[in-house]
Specification:
The complex is a heterodimer of chains A (112) and B (114). With 112 residues, chain A is an all-beta fold. Chain A has strands spanning 5-7, 10-13, 19-24, 31-37, 43-50, 53-57, 65-68, 75-79, 88-95, 102-103, 107-111. Chain B is globular and about 45 Å long. The mean pLDDT of chain B is 94. Classes of the chains: A mainly beta (112), B mainly beta (114). At the A-B interface, strand 4, strand 5, strand 9 and strand 10 of A face strand 6, strand 10 and strand 11 of B.
């Protein structure tokens, strides 16, 4: 069964450094998402991406964040200058024409 | 704005007993509701959804959910709980815009006791 994959599973970085989180959505899906979950808190929407552009973003998704689909398979989330409060689990999701979003296993980002 | 509430942080149930995990929603327009499950150190797994049609929705692993419009609820149920059902359960509502992003509830930790 097709699934969303994410790399790395765990990323440790120093405050102020740039990180890139990678996702491979399900191959025939057209809509892509990033969510995050700070430890012990609810899952929060960050951004959605369709047709090579951002279709919606939350207040969390400020200028430090960017997304890209550099080729036909990968979908990336870049954080330009990480802060301590960016430490969280980041989930990628994708969906086709129907309404169900399928989530990847997540990348745990730890900012020191 | 679309929102969901999960009033219980923790639900404990004995193995073999029926379980219910509660969710209420607040939406403008027709609700599109989802349940996901999260096992420790894992991603979110889709269980079931309500878009339209029958109020009783059947999903994966024997779970079902009952949509109740008058009570604005979408409770997750299972007739006979298994220890392996122990996990964190999230209710979510889909936004009505073209992006269709999800807003999640705060989650309910289900513990099934042997």
């Amino acid at each position: 069964e097709p699934e969303v994959t994410q790399t790395p599973s765990h990323q440790v970085t120093q405050m102020g450094q740039e990180v890139i989180l990678r996702c491979v959505p399900i191959s025939n899906h057209l809509y892509f998402y990033w969510y995050r979950q700070i430890l012990g808190q609810k899952v929060e929407f960050l951004v959605s991406f369709y047709n090579n552009e951002i279709s919606e973003k939350s207040e969390i998704f400020d200028d430090q964040f960017s997304v890209e689909r550099p080729d036909g398979s990968n979908f990336t989330l870049k954080i330009r200058s990480t802060k301590l409060e960016d430490s969280a689990m980041y989930f990628c999701a994708s969906r086709g024409q129907e309404d169900t979003q399928y989530f990847g296993p997540g990348t745990r980002l730890t900012v020191l | 704005a679309q929102s969901v509430a999960q009033p219980e942080d923790q639900v404990n149930v004995a193995e073999g007993n029926p379980l219910t995990v509660k969710c209420t929603y607040s939406v403008s327009g027709n609700p599109y509701l989802f349940w996901y499950v999260q096992y420790p150190n894992r991603g979110l797994q889709f269980l079931l959804k309500y878009i339209t049609g029958d109020n009783l929705v059947k999903g994966s692993y024997g779970f079902e959910a009952e949509f109740n419009k008058s009570q604005t609820s979408f409770h997750l149920k299972k007739p006979s709980a298994l220890v392996s059902d122990s996990a964190l359960y999230f209710c979510a509502v889909r936004h009505s815009g073209s992006a269709r992003q999800l807003t999640f509830g705060s989650g309910t930790q289900l513990t099934v006791l042997p």
